[in-house]
Amino acid sequence: MLRYVLMRILATVPVMGVVAVFVFLMLRLAPGDPAAVIAGDYATAEDVARIREQLGLNQPIPVQFAKWIGALLQGDLGTSIFTNLPVTTLIAQRLEPTLLLALSTITFAVVVAVPLGTIAAWRAGSLLDRFVMLFSVAGFSVPVFVLGYILIYVLAMGLQWLPVQGYKSPFEDGVLAFLRHIALPTMTLSVIFIALIARMTRASVMEVLEEDYIRTARAKGQNELRVLLRHALRNAAVPIVTVIGIGIALLIGGVVVTESVYNIPGLGRLVLDAVLARDYPIIQGLILFFSFVYILINLLIDLSYTLLDPRIRY
Amino acid sequence: MATGRDTDPAALSADAKLPTRQEASLASLVLANRGVFWGGALLLVMVAIAVLGPLFTSDPMALNPIKRLKPPTGEFLFGTDFLGRDVFARVIYGARISLAVGLAVALIAISVGLVMGMIAGYVRALDAVIMRVMDGLMAIPGILLAIALISLSGATLATVIVAIVIPEIPRVVRLVRSVVLTVREEPYVEAAIAAGTRLPQILLRHILPNTIAPLIVQATYISGSAMLTESILGFLGAGIPPEIPSWGNIMSEGRTYFQISPWIIFFPGIALAFTVLAVNIVGDGLRDTLDPRIARKM
Predict the structure, then answer these.
(1) Chain B partners of A138 at a C-beta cutoff of 8 Å?
(2) How far is B232 from chain A, CA to nearest CA, in Å?
(3) Which residues of chain B does A253 touch, with a Cβ-Cβ cutoff of 8 Å?
(4) A32: alpha, beta or left, given left = phi > 0 and alpha = psi -120 to 50?
(5) pTM for the complete prediction?
(6) ipTM for the complex?
């Protein structure tokens, strides 16, 4: 077991390495002079030279890489060109809204999608099942921001139940204000996640429901709810949790868009501001940050399999 | 077996006289699927609109500042935008861009992924290298990667397509590799090897045909997600140059005026959602008929 855990942790090293190399090469192999691209169309020769100096682009590539990876291993994601602040500081400043939005989305999506998928599998072919299947296809067809605007139009502008935009911190503005402002972004971002999880829950619960031990449980007169929860859902947990991990990639992409629609000052907005300002170290740092988060979450999910399903032994 | 070196017993059996009838029945089987039929019909309508529509609408670029931000009426079915341009004409024209991007991304991603997947699946020495690179690429959130690539290389139609293609490649490579790894152990491949068939021949005649069905399914999903990504990039202001009226760009320009003129976002949004929905329904239908093995799992 310990051996497996160690092997699994070691296996993330090459993946992270590839991500780092890729992000490093992206800037250096871009067509044209990257310093000029970053400086923009109206930059003077001095601006370009300053940026080239600041990013160390005038050194040989292997030297650049060694320096860059050395700094990275010490947790240094570089320095913003325009604000001159370390990228890690900028990330720390903007982390709270994004983290809370991600957590509320995952919670909401799981709470809605798992029961929905389970009932759909239990009553396969029923009206509810068809609705779940339709929803899971439709959820993948509507762009996140269009959904956001529909929700704003109906719930915020029409019914005026919720605020249109903005973010309130639960630590500074109170939990109620936070919940009122996070509700629409959460619903928006959840839709694709609910579609994904509900579909996988339905499929894996349906498969488990055909097992002999389900028939046995029913035959001995076990109450149907317990059959579904303890026998079916529990045994269907591994694929469901796996798909949640895969969905983190969708969630990260969706966060950028959702924060932009609802004007939330999180990491997604940091990315877009950096793109507009051509502040490349920030873009680079955030790609690394998000990729490492994704790899880490999927590592944890892999390691959780033994807890979820005692039959899995390493 | 007494076959000569150049004869390939497995190919002989595949060349039996059935193919034409078999293909006909496969096509009717695919069309009999309700998803493929209705999704395909909807998609054909969208393609027809994209190809023929702009011939009948007004100029999507024509400015009419007096009639800016007008709600939908008989004159402007979808209203006008902040420069008085006809949103209906722009949405019709935008269909061309979206469908072209979807098709281009799917074709490029499948071609590149197919070659790399075949290499990874058949050349042991390169397998580990290719797959580690793909694992790394998969760990980078697609939209962020596309935004970074575009901001570095400048936004043109071509760079946007490449930027959407790159994050899609790893899944194709994985798919092709897994098919190759299963098929290479099949008796007919062993027979071909035993008969002395050369490697390119084995790859082309025995391995490649097995990848076609799953790749067609994958291609539909990729084109759907490519259209969504294009619109998201356009919406974020990091996509195709703003003078091209893609659905994403129309919606991006409508952001500021959403509270007074929501139609600028809603109409292209609905058009996009229906197009992607059609593609996804076709994809599900194709998967159910062409690849029942995966179908049972989903």
Answers:
(1) 273, 277
(2) 7
(3) 141-144, 232
(4) left
(5) 0.83
(6) 0.84
